[in-house]
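sorry for the late reply, my laptop died twice this morning and i had to redo everyting from scratch. anyway the thing you sent over, i finally got around to it. pasting the sequence first so we're on the same page, its 360 residues, then the predicted structure underneath. double check i copied it right bc i was rushing
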Amino acid sequence: MQPRFYASAAALVVPVFLSGAASAQTSGASTPPTETGMQREAAQSDGMQLGEIIVTANRRSENVQKVAATISVIGGESLNSSGITRSNEISQVVPNVTISSTYSNTNPRIFIRGVGTADFNPNAASPVGVYIDDVYIASTNAIAFNLFDVQRVEVLSGPQGTLYGRNTTAGAIKYFSKMPTDRLSGDITVRGGNLDDAFVEAALSGPLAGDALTGRVAFTAERRDGYMVNRLTGKDTGNDIRTWAGRGILKWEPSSDWRFVLNVHGGRSNPHTATFKSRGTLTATGQSCSLEAQRAYECYDVLGYRDTPDLRSNAINRVGREIIENYGGLPVDRQGFRLGKAEQHHGLQQGPSYPGRGYG
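ok and here's the structure:
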């Protein structure tokens, strides 16, 4: 893969990882024993320490140090500075988490501490529970989505069945969106790179009717060509990006005891399916090839075809597309407990994929 160069307006922040009860300390507290020497020196030289980190791993807001579970937390600013824009990329910054996919962007397989499922059937349940704003996402095709305007991501390792029910034997991953603010604010991030990569993310938040009613809207879109060249058409193909997503949140707080939130979101991903290169196992006379010859693409398949050793090109006579549409909404809730059953609806359309190759 060629190196990618970006010009971004996102701020650089140091990601924070937490494990177990040892984590960040409030201002004036002693340095936790799990901090590295570099972190201690940086904190002392700057004259400041990490602030309090609030999580909801136990279904209530509390200091992460009081959570009796192994938990990793990364903030939205750290995700932006790391260039992470999709949910299946968080394994790059969260320890003990592995996310892979058989296809381009759909049906990811999540492993926490090596526990997960290798079944690529989209109807198979994953032992890792995925939650968006505390709503469980059941379909494995719907857990690959755009990460934008995110407040934080919490990753709980180990069985979480007591609080989260079934399908959390390996752990749980929780994504939280940024809430509306009582002051007008906004931000935008734009970047570009090779392969005609173009990315934009924007958000606008502020009051709508005094301080009681506030709202927030956010949007993201990205387009990038594939990194392989189809020799039959001369066009880039394979693992390209065609995606967009949006979210709108209304928050009404008539008093300090009541808070009503409505969250509506949607998005679409329409990339080409992942392409492949054919690697034969036979010689021109039909004998078995050596392993070295197979790796050098010097062998033929049963149809007499031999691909070139160029890893950035192939010959595909038809390339499929994956079409994924997700949409949903969170109903009204009261601060402290849920008034009704939260429902999230996801529509999925996966287009036909016909990988093949051309001969000639």
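Residues 1-48, 334-360 have pLDDT under 50 and may be disordered.
thats about all i looked at so far, will dig more tmrw
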